[in-house]
Amino acid sequence: MKKILSVLIAVLLMCSCLLVPVSAQEDKLLQNFFNYCYEKIGEGSVSEVRITDRINWDDVTYFSATSWLAPAQEGTCEIIGEYCVHSNVTEYPYALGVYVATNDEVYSYKDAFDLGVIKSASMVTAFDGITAHKAGEDVELTHRCMDAFARYKKFTPEKDEYIECEVYGEVEGAVVFQAEITAKGNLYPTVVVSQRIGGYIFYEGRPVGPRDNPVGLYILKDSEVMPLSEAYENHKISLSGILSVLHGEKATDGIEDALREKYNLSGPALEKWPIGEDPEGYIYREQYAYFGGEGNLYNANYPDYMLVFAADGPGAPAAPVDIYGEYVIGSYSWYNHYRHGYFVYVPETKTVYTLKEAVEADIEGIENAFLHLGKQGGIRGDADKDGKITIKDATFIQKGIAGIKTPMLYYDNVVGFIVDFDADTHITVKDATAIQKLVAGIEFSRDDV
């Protein structure tokens, strides 16, 4: 006969409308979990159980629980569906410590998934100390990189900290991978960072690594972890090997030297972006290369000009808009040195211009730079953003005035300056008429803005 021992109720509410308050149902859940432990271990071994977090979803209760035994401090992992699930500690009697209950039955999370009781293998990550990554084709290789990276960083996980790791491939006896130490709930800046390796630039959508390795790329070779840039410099891996597993963009020589000389813009990318503090670092990316007609290039391997973005840190919140001749650019940040952060570099003369200076210098093909700013910029009157002023732009403006829905092709703070073609600070049918006159070759007047 089962002997029902006392149980300790300790429900730590999670921030979710799916969590339920302490009730008789929880008493029942505790009893069912106690019985589960009794069946797993046997009479006389179960002394106390505790439910820590609980989520109700689709008539199923997901819960985490601890037993009378303190969890082992070494982590554990388990393959569940297409995910490899990691826990910072090892619980008892089920190592992950996350369970599923339905119809008075309790299952370990893996058993519940394997038996079809639940369909999602990823819900487990809602619980503290639990993370998961796609298992991929070679889970063992991913774990080998994670373990080596943990040793390299001397990483001792806290409750919500974990290592994210993605393996890109093996080449020349080295495993190329990306890794970072992160935590649940982290907020990341939407800033593109980059690193130059052997004449190629590798980009990442946010800071992943430290100041000297912002893109977070490493190799694992002979049980040693090394930043990818350092590995290349020390001949541990060739550039062709790197490019066989990673995508890099060919860099244009001289740009950063010119930026450094003219604007004192130089240095490595972001080291960190702490919330509530001023970040440090350097942001750089090559946005667009313009190749002109035959005879305009001093060297076929180089473009006529490069559009680059460079800043010595994130911009201040602002929404500057500028009109340079027939071109418009707007931003939602204000950067030092040049408020929009964009520069034009001409390799032939090794000269850097702001966009305003490039327009004033009448650089060939400069209109393409504004077209490659996305929603940030364009040509005045080019309402449909096809790079030309045509009768279709007049029609586009007329539709907007009539309340007919049209695509949002520019930022809110830019679009008014694009379609206000007659520069009277109002969007009216006169703007469409002015475009029609231009297309027909009829002269019209425009106030300077």
What does this 3D model show about the protein?
- It contains 11 helices and 23 strands.
- The radius of gyration is 30 Å and the shape is flat.
- Helix 9 (391-401) packs antiparallel against helix 11 (429-440).
- With 449 residues, it is of the alpha+beta class.
- The longest helix has 18 residues, at 24-41.
- The chain has helices at residues 24-41, 109-114, 139-153, 228-233, 239-245, 255-263, 355-360, 366-371, 391-401, 412-419, 429-440; strands spanning 49-57, 60-67, 76-80, 83-87, 98-102, 105-108, 130-134, 161-171, 174-183, 193-197, 200-204, 217-221, 224-227, 249-250, 283-290, 305-311, 316-317, 321-324, 327-330, 333-334, 342-346, 351-354, 377-379.
- 23% of the residues lie in helices and 27% in strands.
- Residues 1-22, 266-280 and 295-300 have low confidence and may be disordered.
- The protein has a 4-stranded antiparallel β-sheet with strand order 1-2-5-6. The protein has a 4-stranded antiparallel β-sheet with strand order 8-9-12-13, sandwiched between helices. A 4-stranded antiparallel β-sheet has the order 15-16-21-22.
